[in-house]
Amino acid sequence: MIERLVRGEVPRKHHIAHRPAGNLAYEHCITRDGFEGPYTICYHRQRPHTHAAVEIEVGWPAPVGAGGLALARRHYVTPQVDAGGPPVNARVPLLFNDDVVLSVARPNQADPVYVQNGDGDELLYIHQGGGTVRSLLGDVTFAAEDYVYLPKGVTYRILPDDGDQMWFSMECAGGIGIPKQWRNPVGQLRMDAPYCHRDFRGPAFVGPLDEGIATVAIKRRGQFFGFELPASPLDVIGWDGTVYPCAFAIRNFQPRAGLVHLPPTWHGTFAARGALICSFVPRLVDFHPEAVPCPYPHSSVDCDEVIFYCRGNFTSRRGIGEGSVSFHPAGLPHGPHPGAYEASIGQTRTDELAVMLDTYKPLFPTDAALRIEDPAYNASFR
Predict the structure, then answer these.
(1) What is the pLDDT of residue 316?
(2) Which residues, including other chains, have CB under 8 Å from residue 358's CB and lie 6 or more apart?
(3) pLDDT band at 301 (very low <50, low <70, confident <90, very high)
(4) Is the pLDDT of residue 1 over 70?
(5) Distance between CA 335 and CA 298 in Å, rounded?
(6) What is the mean pLDDT of residues 200-209?
(7) How confident is the model at residue 243 (pLDDT cuts 50, 70, 90)?
(8) What distance in Å separates the CA atoms of residue 176 and residue 123, rounded to the nearest whole number?
């Protein structure tokens, strides 16, 4: 996603024989956009494409729309979602369209199998907890207030730390990347971008590893399919490329302040097909003597808006707790709760921490979302 990394032993050129210990290593290309986009090449001790189909009973459910719902602003009290199970089972889809599936997860066990998502990239926001992503490319440790990026096609399993966990999951069918405006012509992050390459933590290479697990659950077409390998898939001796898991601390996002209120695009952190993912972090606010720092009411007639509330003082909302999700569909004007707009005048900073998505296609709530919905939320704007 960010820059080329090199880990372990790789040959001097692509597609040539590599025998670091006398035995021929098997080259494995993980490509994007066919063979036209970013890629990573890794080298296995064993053939990576030898497997047998097996029955598995793992995987998060495919989202199904609840249907027949009125057009309304909605608030989902996501801490009410039950905890349980490994990450591969623990995600509870709340909102979805053809581009994204938004879920919450409260796992309390390590994944018993390796997982490979063939449907899309995954981005986890770690609201509570921490752990390790163990992949064929190495380990990425993560903690509360980190984003964790899991690229399509990369084999991994997640080992949560002990203690309570709560994650906000964004599964993006069209991939996830850096917004174009933050890159220079050669793909490097610009010096005026709101983050730098050093803010992203790539995998720590652990070399060939055998955890006694050889089962991979591959997600495709919204279903999980099981395959058994003859040996551990973590037999990689080296790799290089730009497709790999990584973590990014949300507080490393560098916010901007203007004379008057800046639109959410200035907070854009990740870009996906049909969606922009934004980070709202503690910051100074607008400095015009007559500025209204609170977000203005707006009619975003082309976008649905979702906010995952993390921590701090949410100046535009009341009755919203940490870990809650608000959903404001296109077609309805939305904005601050009564009194918040006026009360923001004269404020000099905000301490909010939140993740926001704008999506171009309509989002559909699931039955799971309806079970944790705050029925009084829509009327609270009167």
Answers:
(1) 57
(2) 264, 275, 276, 278, 300, 303, 304, 305
(3) confident
(4) no
(5) 6
(6) 94
(7) very high
(8) 8
Q: How many residues does the chain have?
A: 382
What does the block give as tokens for 28? 């494995």
The CA distances from residue 236 to 1, 112, 229, in Å, are 20, 20, 14
Residue 6: strand pairing partners = 240
CA angle 282, 285, 287 (to 5 degrees): 155
The answer to whether the beta carbons of residues 225 and 218 sit under 8 Å apart is yes
- Amino acid at position 98, single letter: D
- The residues, any chain, with a CB within 8 Å of residue 300's CB and separated by 6 or more, are 330, 334, 358
Between CA 117 and CA 97 the distance in angstroms is 17
> Could you give the CA distance from residue 255 to residue 284 in angstroms, rounded to a whole number?
8
Report pLDDT for 312: 80
Model confidence pLDDT, tens digit, residues 66-92: 988 899 999 999 999 987 899 999 999
**pLDDT tens, residue by residue, 170-181:** 999 999 999 999
